[in-house]
Amino acid sequence: MKYDGIIIHSARDQYGLIEVVENRSTRKLYFDTPIEQSCIYRNAPMTLNFEYQQKIVSLVNEHFQNRKQPKNYRVLMLGMGGGSMAHNLYHSLPNVQITIVELRQIVIDAAYRYFQLPNVPEIESIQADAIEYILELALDCDDNPLFQYDAILVDIFDAEGLPPELSAPLFHDAIADCVKKKGRLIFNLWNRIEPGREHEHTEDTADILRHWQQNVENIRSQERYLMKSTSNLILNIDF
């Protein structure tokens, strides 16, 4: 037994160990720490288990409706986990096209094999470093706005939390170029987890928030949502 379940799959790459742990009701993904990276209910795989996932998906759905349900609505997701949000959006948004960029091939393989991520043309999975991917995509978007996305979701975590590279100004300048006019950019960030400090930002989260406070050109609005059940902080930016 581990993490209140049985390990049904484990794999290791240069970034460490991943484990899929199952019990009677759930199946969970771990990155070599007790922190759950993804979770599905075995009898209801489309149900979003985490409050932050529910909030992010609701923000995408809201944006889709506000945009009058456009055809070929394009979503870019940085970070895959078990693919639960992509699975939910695929079934809830008509004509959606989803691209998921995930650093680790073993995570992609686990999402399809153990977490029921649909293997369909509407969902494209790319094994790549998300930071490098955005820097290259921004160059394409400068040349042709058709490469831009309606919504971009940034949900990148490693075993330690937010990767430091995620707070680099160069990344944020580039990702802004990848969002369509009237598009939406959503970050899943992280506050401190110690009891009583849930409203305190980690250093990386503070750097990201500071960047977007200071760089408001072409931004129509931005909102923050602190999750009640965890230390996740959702930053929603409308262009």
From TrEMBL:
SUPFAM superfamilies: S-adenosyl-L-methionine-dependent methyltransferases (SSF53335)
Gene3D superfamilies according to UniProt: Vaccinia Virus protein VP39
Keywords assigned by UniProt, alphabetized: Methyltransferase, Transferase
Key word Transferase present: yes
Taxonomy, superkingdom: Bacteria
Similarity remark: Belongs to the methyltransferase superfamily.
Designated name of the protein: Spermidine synthase
Gene source species: Thiomicrorhabdus heinhorstiae
